[in-house]
Structure formats: structure tokens, C-alpha cells
Q: What sequence folds into this?
């Protein structure tokens, strides 16, 4: 018999379930938020709004690194350390390619065996979507839902496709870059922007014969980080080494993260930073929606094609053409 999916619970049922820490309700609420069905929009908005009210003290931590660097092994080991320290951990992922690959390579439960079966952990693979913006929005809302369900540490993983690190950076409090020790080429082939975003660089697989190279990389990165201007958080980014597989260096990383949160909570930066992120998301979302409404209109698209030719042929100024198109857009709205 085909599996019959139970109907979507009402927003009130979902809110109640989430407040009780019920993972089924949480998972269904995230599915609702991820849905592109316009009917689900207002329901999702109600759930989010209710969840926003709780505002518990949480830590949002972004983790990035190339495939194979050890992100899932690291999250598994760090996640278990956090749970042993009394926390509840949610793992989310941002992977804009998940639609194409028909399944995410991130946040895969099978790769985090202890964590995924632990009652104090919640793991959710990346939302799928056409655009990074859409996937990021869904993940951001999932953070709110997880926090309302009692997860006080949210780990957001990304593999760094396109601008996905920037998207993760804009929704977390602390951003951690995982690296491997290379042969003296640590600073090559790494996007400058990512180093600038990082609050910590962690060199993974630092065990056995690799320790010396990892220490060397640590020195090089530390030196390089000092050349960057100070962060608005006034936090000096740290470089540490670890072996996720052998669980060495993980406790030190957790100590560093706690140190960061202590300092940004005390001086009010954490709160101010989250407010600034909210503001940024509002502006970004407005921009996205306006753009998609304008460019999504078939009539306007046809007209635009015509104007493009005229503009290219210097028959009309680009600004005049834009004004005329916008006038038509406003008429369409009426
Ligand atoms: P991801 O693609 O970044 O999520 O990386 P994975 O966590 O899947 O790890 C990729 C490979 O590296 C796997 O074979 C892991 O077992 C291995 N790995 C991860 N962490 C370590 C580590 O600390 N030391 C060693 N030697 N191998 C590791």
C-alpha cells in the first residue's frame, strides 16, 4: 500500500508541539516553511511568528570547508561534546545544489551516526530550491523553529558553493572554517572573503605524521589573520588544530567558542549583530521579491526584450526605457 501522508497539522498544533520539543512537529514545521505552495505561506508565517516570541539564549555556529575536509566527522564529534556538556544540538545545512543532485551531500544523517540517533540532537539536510536566496531563507527560518523547540546550539553547515558561505555567515553568530594542512600553500586557493568572515580556522586531520604540517599551517594562518583589519566584534580570530576522527583538539575548540560568546554577550555585540542581520534579511527579501515579481511577469519580459534592442541601438536612453517599463509594472499592480 502506498504510504499515506498525514495531513499538515494546523499552525496551533505545530506551535504547541514545537514548544514541547516534539521533533515530529519541528520536522513538519520546517517542511511547511520549505514548501513553495502558496497555501502554506500564511500557515508557515504564523508558526514562525509564534516561535520568534520565545527568543531563548542560543548559539548559532556556521561551519564551512571543502568536500572531504571532515565537516560531518567534525560536527559528529563536536556535536557529541556539546551534548555531553548538557546542550541540545540542531544541525542544518545549506546546499543550493541539492535540487540538482537530487539529494543533499550535506547534513546527511548516515554520516553522523551517533549524533543522528541521539535524542538531544536534530539533524536536517539542506532545503532544496532554485536559488541560494530561497534555500538560505528556509534555513534561516528553520533556525528559529529549532531554537523554539529547545535546541540551544545550532550548527549550520555549508560546502561553500557559490555564495553559500556568505549566506551562512549572515545567519550565524560564529563562523568556523575547516581546513586541511597542505604543503606550504595554505593561503593559496582560498577565497579572501572567507578568511575575512572566519572567527576561527580549524586545521582538521591533525594526527600522526600530519601534526607537524598542521602546526605549520596554524602558524601561517595566524600570521595571515593578523594582517586583516579588526572585526566589528573586536574578536581576534583564532587558529586551532584538531583531529575530528580521534576526538583530539575538539574540547579546545569548544572552549574557544564559549570564550567568544562570553565576550560578545557581555558587550552587547551579539544582540546588536542579530538585529543587524534581521535588518539585512528584510532588505534582501524585499529586493528578491520585487525582482522576482518584476522579472516574473511575462508581459513585462516581452516588453523588456523590445526595450533592450532599442537601448542597444541608441534609440532611447536606458533610463527612459526603465521608467516606461516601471510605469507599466505599476499599472499591472493596480
Ligand atoms: P566532509 O565532506 O567535509 O563532510 O568530510 P567527511 O566528514 O565526510 O570526511 C571525509 C573523509 O575524511 C572521511 O573519510 C573521514 O573519515 C575522513 N576524516 C574526517 N576527519 C578526519 C580526521 O580528523 N582525521 C582523518 N585522518 N580523517 C578524517
A:
Amino acid at each position: 500500500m502506498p504510504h499515506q501522508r498525514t495531513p499538515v497539522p494546523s499552525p496551533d498544533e505545530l506551535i504547541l508541539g514545537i514548544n514541547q520539543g516534539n521533533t515530529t512537529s519541528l520536522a513538519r514545521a520546517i517542511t511547511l516553511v520549505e514548501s513553495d505552495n502558496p497555501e502554506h505561506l500564511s500557515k508557515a508565517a504564523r508558526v514562525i511568528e509564534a516561535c520568534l516570541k520565545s527568543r531563548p539564549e542560543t548559539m548559532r555556529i556556521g561551519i564551512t570547508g571543502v568536500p572531504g575536509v571532515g565537516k560531518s566527522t567534525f560536527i559528529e564529534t563536536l556535536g557529541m561534546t556539546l551534548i555531553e556538556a548538557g546542550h541540545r544540538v540542531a544541525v542544518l545545512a545549506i546546499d543550493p545544489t541539492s535540487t540538482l543532485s537530487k539529494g543533499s551531500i550535506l547534513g546527511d544523517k548516515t554520516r553522523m551516526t551517533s549524533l543522528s540517533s541521539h535524542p538531544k540532537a536534530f539533524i536536517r539536510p539542506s532545503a532544496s530550491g532554485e536559488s541560494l536566496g530561497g534555500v538560505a531563507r528556509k534555513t534561516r527560518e528553520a533556525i528559529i523553529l529549532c531554537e523554539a523547540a529547545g535546541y540551544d546550539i545550532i550548527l549550520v553547515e555549508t560546502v561553500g558553493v557559490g555564495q553559500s558561505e556568505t549566506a551562512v555567515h549572515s545567519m550565524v553568530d560564529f563562523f568556523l572554517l575547516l581546513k586541511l594542512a597542505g604543503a606550504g600553500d595554505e593561503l593559496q586557493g582560498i577565497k579572501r572573503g572567507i578568511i575575512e568572515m572566519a572567527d576561527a580556522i580549524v586545521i582538521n586531520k591533525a594526527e600522526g605524521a600530519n601534526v607537524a604540517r598542521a602546526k605549520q599551517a596554524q602558524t601561517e594562518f595566524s600570521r595571515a589573520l593578523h594582517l586583516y583589519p579588526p572585526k566589528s566584534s573586536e574578536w581576534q580570530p583564532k587558529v586551532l588544530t584538531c583531529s575530528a576522527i580521534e576526538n583530539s583538539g575538539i574540547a579546545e575548540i569548544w572552549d574557544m567558542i564559549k570564550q567568544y560568546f562570553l565576550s560578545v554577550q557581555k558587550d552587547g555585540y551579539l544582540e546588536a549583530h542579530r538585529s543587524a542581520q534581521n535588518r539585512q534579511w528584510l532588505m534582501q527579501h524585499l529586493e528578491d521579491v520585487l525582482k522576482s515579481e518584476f522579472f516574473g511577469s511575462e508581459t513585462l519580459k516581452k516588453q523588456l526584450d523590445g526595450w533592450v534592442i532599442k537601448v542597444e541601438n541608441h534609440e532611447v536612453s536606458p533610463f527612459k526605457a526603465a521608467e516606461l517599463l516601471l510605469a507599466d509594472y505599476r499599472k499591472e499592480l493596480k
Q: What stands out?
A: The longest helix spans residues 269-296. Residues 1-53 form a domain with the Single alpha-helices involved in coiled-coils or other helix-helix interfaces fold (CATH 1.20.5). DSSP finds 13 helices and seven strands in the chain.
